[in-house]
Design a protein that fits this description.
globular, alpha/beta, binds alpha-D-galactopyranose, single chain, 13 helices, 9 strands, TIM Barrel
């Protein structure tokens, strides 16, 4: 370690946020128990290690706006207050998505699809109410989540089918009106894959050409041990940087369960079908896999560090392995830096070591 590496930091950093200070924010997705300060294992880790938070579910449409005209901000308010009391960069996730959005949004009382104008008015009301409530307090919003299909074309979601392709522009416009200073993001998975990346590049170029106030692209980062390659990750970050947007890794985890290897999607239903029943590490993670995971994390952070200045934030999707969504479908998974007892894993040490040994 040289003095220049940790300028202003007299002792060797012991936490993720210190180790990457000046490079990018280190974020974590928090659940309800955590933002209510009721997770005795997770809360000390959150407070110690991270300087940004994302809400796992608390700001999704079905959480804050479950019925027509009914907003419930009980949990969202607690989430934001938790971030403020811990002096963290607070992220809003997410405004327009095809999941966790109630059917009534897209249907009239007879169950028929609403018109473009009705859906646009509904979207505007939602975005202005939610973004407006936290104006000046939430640093940035995942305005649109997962609008692209694997082939790079726009996904045929209810948003796209009813409003048309410009639902994305409209969502950004409404969010910008509600909080002109908030950062606005397009967030998606598998943008490392060529066809989808090409589609995203075309989309971002179009948005920029139209003057849409987009700040950054979020690469979700639901990774596998063998996907994406480091070259793909490197090229993906470079490709977006060239368009004049920042990049964020917004939902980082590394799925170690072998049955899912080779899968190239974070699509929830596709995964559920594929991995049902696969539970290869139910008795613990073998030491060699533990080491391979540590190396995988070190390599990935090497790529992120190479792009410091473009990569503004790296957010993990969960605190401990026990918290992860990747344990669903009957599998025991080990995708994060802290184990089920809240202890740092070799992968944690590897990520710290990457910061210490940077060129
Ligand atoms: C997507 C969403 C997240 C989360 C994960 C899986 O990536 O953006 O909010 O729901 O799926 O849990």
């Amino acid at each position: 370690m040289t003095a220049a590496v940790f300028a202003g930091c007299a002792t060797k950093p012991t936490t993720l946020k210190e180790a990457y200070k000046g490079d990018f924010l280190i974020g974590v997705a928090v659940n309800q128990k955590q933002f209510e300060n009721a997770d005795r294992r997770g809360n000390p880790i959150i407070q110690e290690q991270f300087d940004s938070i994302s809400p796992e579910n608390a700001l999704k449409w079905d959480s804050v706006h479950p019925d027509p005209g009914v907003y419930d901000f009980t949990n969202a308010d607690r989430y934001v207050a938790f971030g403020e009391s811990n002096h963290m960069a607070i992220i809003g996730h997410t405004l327009v998505w095809h999941h966790q959005t109630p059917q009534w949004v897209f249907q009239d009382t007879n169950g028929n699809p609403v018109t473009r104008d009705v859906l646009l008015a509904g979207m505007r009301d939602h975005i202005q109410t939610v973004v407006g409530r936290y104006k000046g307090r939430i640093k940035g919003w995942d305005v649109v989540n997962e609008a692209l299909a694997e082939d790079g074309k726009l996904r045929r979601s209810n948003w796209q089918k009813i409003i048309g392709d410009d639902f994305i522009e409209k969502a950004f416009q409404y969010a910008h009106e509600a909080d002109p200073k908030a950062e606005l993001y397009y967030n998606d998975y598998s943008l490392e894959n060529e066809p989808k990346r090409k589609g995203a590049i075309a989309l971002i170029k179009k948005l920029k050409a139209e003057g849409v106030p987009i700040t950054a692209v979020g690469l979700q980062g639901h990774f596998k041990m063998d996907w994406p390659t480091l070259e793909e990750e490197d090229a993906t970050i470079s490709d977006f940087a060239k368009l004049g947007v920042m990049v964020m890794i917004t939902e980082l985890d590394v799925d170690v369960v072998r049955a899912t290897q080779g899968n190239r999607t974070a699509d929830i239903e596709a995964n559920a079908r594929r991995v049902a029943g696969a539970n290869v590490y139910s008795n613990g993670l073998p030491a060699d896999v533990q080491q391979a995971l540590a190396k995988r994390y070190a390599d990935l952070f090497g790529v992120f560090l190479k792009h410091r200045g473009v990569v503004e934030r790296v957010t993990f999707w969960g605190v401990t392995d026990g918290d992860s969504w990747l344990n669903t479908w009957g599998r025991k998974n080990y995708p994060l830096l802290f184990d089920r007892d809240g202890q740092p894993k070799p992968a944690f040490q590897a990520v710290m070591q990457t910061a210490r040994s940077r060129p």
